[in-house]
Amino acid sequence: MSMTMMRGAYLIDRITRFVRDARGMAAVEFAIIVPMMLTIFFGTIEVSNGVAADRKVTLASRTLSDLVSQGTKVSNTDLDNFFKMSVAIMTPYGAAPLQQRVSAIDIDDKGVAKVAWSRANGTGIAALDKDKVVSVPEGLIANNTQLILAEVFYKYTPAVGYFMKDGVMLSDVCYTRPRQSAKVDPPPA
């Protein structure tokens, strides 16, 4: 047997042994799968937290609208307390990115909806101008009535927000009708 043939056989034998060797296979599989599994794990946690925060935004808007609609009149102290309740609902999420607005919308005999009064709480949000014509969902228009409109906005920033550093704006709007009277009187100016 020539030296070249021996080298070729030796080389083929080494390649065959290398292909059949499975000693490092588990480490390679681990290195491939772990980053993917961690991404799925942390992604699931972030999506769950985002959904929970969105649920709390919905609860905050419904609570704000419901509390205002339960009285015949509302004071500035009442509104401050109602806004604080919405902040408490958002626990354990931070209150700083929370913006809230509650407005009484009068609907006249022609079905035109105008702002009777409005109050806002939070940085970057303002009360609606009195007598501003607003859009109300068609199914809620009833002539000569009032609606209480609560709007809540929350900027959710994920804890592991590598791809979403600016966060996601969550919002909800809730309409209710006054319960004790035809209208909820505004707070004193």
Task: Describe this structure as you would to a colleague.
- This protein is an alpha+beta fold and 189 residues long.
- The chain has one domain.
- Helix content is 41%, strand content 21%.
- It has helices at 3-20, 25-69, 76-89; strands at residues 98-107, 113-121, 145-156, 168-176.
- A four-stranded antiparallel β-sheet has the order 2-1-3-4, covered by helices on one side.
- Helix 2 packs antiparallel against helix 3 (76-89).
- It is rod-shaped and about 110 Å long.
- The termini are far apart.
Sheet of most strands:
4 strands, antiparallel
- The helix tally amounts to 3
* SSE sequence, one letter per element: HHHEEEE
The structural domain count equals 1
Could you list the spans in which at least 5 consecutive residues all have pLDDT below 50?
none
Identify the strand order in the major beta sheet: 2-1-3-4
Rounded to the nearest angstrom, the distance between the terminal CA atoms is: 108 Å
Rg over CA atoms, rounded to whole Å, is: 31 Å
- Into which percentage range does the β-strand content fall? 15-25%
What would the average pLDDT be, to the nearest integer?
89
Query: What structural class do you assign from the helix and strand content?
Result: alpha+beta
What percentage of residues falls in helices of 4 or more residues?
40-55%
Shape descriptor reads rod-shaped
Annotation, overall tally of beta strands: 4
Question: What does this entry show, briefly?
Answer:
This protein is of the alpha+beta class and 189 residues long. It is built from 3 helices and 4 strands, in the order αααββββ. The mean pLDDT is 89.
